[in-house]
Amino acid sequence: MTAAALGTTKLNPFGDLHTMQHLAARLARGMRPVWEGLLRQEVRSFAEPLSVQRFADYRVERGDALTGWLPLAMTPNGAQAWCVFDGRFVLELLDLFFGGSGAAPAQLPTEFSPAADAMVARLGTMIAGPLGAAWEPLTRVAFAPGKPEQAADIDGDDAVIVTRLGLATGERPSFVDILYPVAALKPHGASLTGKVLDKAEPDPVWRTNLARATMAVRFPVRSVLAEPVVSLSLLMDLKEGDVIPITIAPDVPVMVGRDRLGCGTVGTANGRAAIRLTSLAQPDEGFQA
Questions:
Q1: Rounded distance between C-alpha atoms, residue 132 and residue 184, angstroms
Q2: Is the model's pLDDT at 223 over the cut of 50?
Q3: What is the pLDDT of the chain when averaged over all its residues?
Q4: Nearest by Cα to 108 from 79, 156, 58, 65
Q5: Exposed (0-12), middle (13-18) or buried (19+): which is 220, by Cβ within 10 Å?
Q6: Cα–chain-centroid distance for residue 261?
Q7: Are strands 174-181 and 159-168 parallel, antiparallel or unpaired?
Q8: DSSP class of residue 199?
């Protein structure tokens, strides 16, 4: 039996927080391409187990190390969450951004430079989109980053839900915390105590019919065999029976709509003119990804 002290406030009014943990996992998956774009290498992105604690205790755990604090305005309820960045991680990204190897100084400064503050703001902008997308199956919440601060504007006795995102490229992972004051999440209490289905299985009949309908869509396929260039004077003098010489290249382009499918060789098949495909275009060469 756990003793209860009179006058204390319940830290977590949302139960087991399975829904919030599920949301954090969605966010970690959504952040993977963001981290890989910043670090220019493959990244393992994951979510740590959630915790609920008083903000003063969270500050004690972080200690006095260099830290970036960025407010995230939550609309439509006007609440505010916070992104918390490890100072060394911010300086490593800043070094990469300016063409370095991603190394932070051995002795960290006591405060961020304007360039480091700009990097914190940039990180907040890059996180806000995936964060809103992670919340979407639960409820529509938009996040807008503000200006970096020296510390979070949260009362020490207020309870916060700590969502910790991890990213690892080697042995030493880096972490980014997102703090949700419990009071800020109370308008979403009904959603947080319900269940979220991340990947609901579609109806198999509907999926089969959709696949058949998609495969039946028709696209115009064309090829340009030659594009001769003539002067305006020659065009003005053309008459019936004149011949415009053309040269057919060994490989001619094959187009689907306005996109390049690949190249082919002109020939015949079953008594009809035909083009034999010799190569297919890569996504960045033809079809737009």
A1: 15
A2: yes
A3: 84
A4: 65
A5: exposed
A6: 28
A7: antiparallel
A8: S
